[in-house]
Amino acid sequence: MTILADETTRVVYQGLTGSQGRFYGLRNRAYGTQVVAGTHPTKGGTDVEGIPVFATVGEAVDATGANASCIFVPAPGVAPAVLEAAGAGIELVVVITEGVPTHDQARMHAALVHDFPGTRLLGPNCPGVISPGRTNIGITAGEIGRGGGPVGIVSRSGTLTYQALHELTQAGVGQTTCVGIGGDPVPGTTFVDCLALFEADPDTRVVLLIGEIGGSAEEEAAEYVAGMATPVVGYVAGVTAPPGRRMGHAGAIVSGTRGTARAKIDALEAAGVAVGRDPSEAARLVAETVASLT
Amino acid sequence: MDLFEYQGKGFLGSFGVPVPAGKVATDADEAVAAAEELGFPAAVKAQVRVGGRGKAGGVRVAADAGEARAAAEAILGMDISGHLVERVWVEAAAEIAAEHYVSFTLDRAARAHLGLLSARGGVDIEAVAAEDPGAVARLHIDPVEGLTTDGCRGWIAAAGLSGPGARDLIELLGRLWVAYSEGDAELVEVNPLVVTAAGSLVALDAKVTLDDSAAYRHPDWDRYAATQEGDERERAARARGLQYVGLDGSVGIIANGAGLAMSTLDVVAQVGGRPANFLDIGGGAKAEVMAAALELVNADPEVAAILVNIFGGITRGEEVARGIVEALERVEITSPIVVRLDGTNAAEGRAILAGHESARLRSRPTMVEAARTAVELAAAATGEPAGAPVA
Do B270 and A166 touch (CB under 8 A)? Predict the structure, then answer.
């Protein structure tokens, strides 16, 4: 099994007609993802290489039965796009766009909690979700994944997610689902959400968690891991980051004792997580854990 | 983007938060003229974006023009925790009856905003919170509902600030909240929020951090951007729109994505090298962005080797490779470049690089191997042995 998305997931691309939306929408379709629709307020009735474009998500859902959305619209349009998708009954909304203002993120998350509890937001500023061999929603290069499990991946960093997928695949270790939750201050889906889903998935037998400095998401994940039966391997980027300096992601600000890479690694190790010193070592630890499964 | 105190006060003032009248001065004559206009006693305050200014002697109260001149001369040019004082803020000194503390920021774990309010302002609030957590009243604020009057009343009561001045305080907190939420701030902090001898509330200090992602809807923020300091390299990077942090080693780093860039720094340290910088060229970076990044890193005189670590998702391999080749043709890159390229269209990218492989440009298949080669090249160029690998 997979988490969040599989080959039956029907995806509408909000922003399909833009250059990024088109490139990744078509690439996702070529991978096998059910790319059933695109939206654009003034381009309803047109199509992108056979993918019908609708004026609204509601129309797209009515016509195609879409149950997930992938958003590539520019940052100012993200919050309205997410709420439009949620209002149309979309269950999973994946936001690839980066640079969404923090207050918009907070309002968007709170609005979903209040009014659309049935909608899960992934992102913003995330690479999306890939269940290798089944579906790929977002910007991950599909060929670096390998289907069949038994590893589930959850990561705050896009490029480190690709790195992890690539190394596991090179080592012949398959994945159930790989989720990039994004590094922004208010992620719609958290480490703990994904750990809970992986724990409940019988085919995911090892989880790789990739964190980075800033915030306390890894510390919260460590508390949850302590109660999990599924073994978890970790990696945390930013051990050498100078304290208090901003490192690109709005989220990556070191604050207090929680937030440093050291504090996160200590918390994860205390919860029984094997933590690699670099992404390759983490992948090796995952491969070893997989090999030790009976 | 962190604002200077005088900018922060202007920002809060524009939302109706009461702030003292004052003027910025860049030399002693200006400071004296400002103080004479505002009236004595006047406070002369160093403008630096770092804490601990008071302890460093960066704030003085002047009783007359002579003292104002002496204060400005002493403070301008001062080094406060590595920050050079280029400006002072001169304001009419307040008669203080009480000092409070208030701030709004995001509580990421709660995915809600958090207000902190304390009757014990004017001092190190972290120390107060550590020794007496009850002295700092916390209020979580729903991002959709915002700060409500009812929420405010309970918050004020919890901080022990109910009483005759509560109505004014509620009004001020409301304005400060609007400054934070409508103003797209990541932090607004007033310490101290003073009650003057006449009983009015004034924000005597202002720490404001604005959310860079929201700059597109605040064209007036351009005036703050002009005064952002940082070292020469960081200024040049900002001008090119690159995410750059200057460090002090000899291995220049270019990577895509903050996570991979941080991880690259870690791996360079792990194999015994010292990174010269953090540089994230972001997602979807085109050839010209890579060329600009190489020029920027190469311009740093401490850099002896450049490590380019790209794993393509939204960034395509052939764009990266083309950018490297273009930079090599356009400017003289003096340091050898080591490239590790993987992900989207990596094969196309590697094919482009293969045609240009030389002592100036090498490819390595993995991140650790690429880091090791870059560290060795830097060590050979600087004549220093590579340091001991970090455990």
Answer: no
* Distance in angstroms (rounded) separating the CA atoms of residues A53 and A233: 42
State whether A139 and B263 contact (CB < 8 Å): no
pTM comes to 0.90
Of the listed ranges A72-76, B232-236, B260-264, the least confidently predicted one is B232-236
Residues in chain A closer than 8 A to B111 (CB atoms): 106, 109-110, 186
| Architecture field, domain A10-122 | 3-Layer(aba) Sandwich (3.40)
Q: Let me know if the fold of A10-122 is the same as that of A140-293.
A: yes
ipTM rounded to 2 decimals: 0.89
| Residues of chain A with C-beta less than 8 angstroms from the C-beta of B311 | 159, 162-163, 166
Residues in chain B: 391
Which entry of B189, B224, B244, B318 is annotated as an active-site residue?
B189
List C-alpha distances in Å: B124 to A112, B205, B270, B294: 38, 13, 37, 43
Of the candidates B370, B364, B367, the residue with the CA atom closest to the CA atom of residue B350: B364
pLDDT at B288: 79
Domain spanning B232-382, CATH class? alpha beta
Q: Is B108 close to A251, i.e. CB distance below 8 A?
A: yes
**CATH class in words for B96-222:** alpha beta
Residues 28-57 of B with CB under 8 A from A: none
pLDDT, tens only, A84-110: 999 999 999 999 999 999 999 999 999
Q: Tens digits of per-residue pLDDT, A56-94?
A: 999 999 999 999 999 999 999 999 999 999 999 999 999
Contact A144 B217 (CB under 8 A): no
Residues of B (141-180) whose Cβ lies below 8 Å from A: 142-144
What is the interface size between A and B, counted as CB pairs within 8 Å?
175
Strand order across the beta sheet in which A150-155 lies: A135-138, A128-131, A174-180, A150-155, A206-212, A232-237, A274-276
Burial of residue B192 (CB within 10 Å: 0-12, 13-18, 19+) is: buried
B360 band by pLDDT with thresholds 50, 70 and 90: confident
CATH architecture of the domain B21-93 equals 2-Layer Sandwich (3.30)
CB contact under 8 A, A103 and B211: yes
Alpha-carbon distance of B237 to A149, in angstroms, equals 42
Partner residue opposite B263 with nearest CB, options A220, A248, A279: A279
Mean of pLDDT over chain B = 89
A100: closest chain B residue by CA: B213
A103 among known catalytic residues: no
The ranges assigned to domains in chain B are 21-93, 96-222, 232-382
Selected for mutation to probe chain B from A159, A179, A253, A275 (highest B CB count within 10 Å) is A159
> pLDDT band at residue A256, thresholds of 50, 70 and 90?
very low
- CB contact under 8 Å between B313 and A76, yes or no, is no
Helix, strand or coil for residue A113?
A: helix
Q: Does domain A140-293 have CATH number 3.40.50.261?
A: yes
Contact between residue A181 and residue A256 where contact means Cβ atoms under 8 Å apart: no
pLDDT of B27 over the 90 cut = yes
The tokens for B296 are 């920027």
Indicate the SS3 state at residue A160: helix
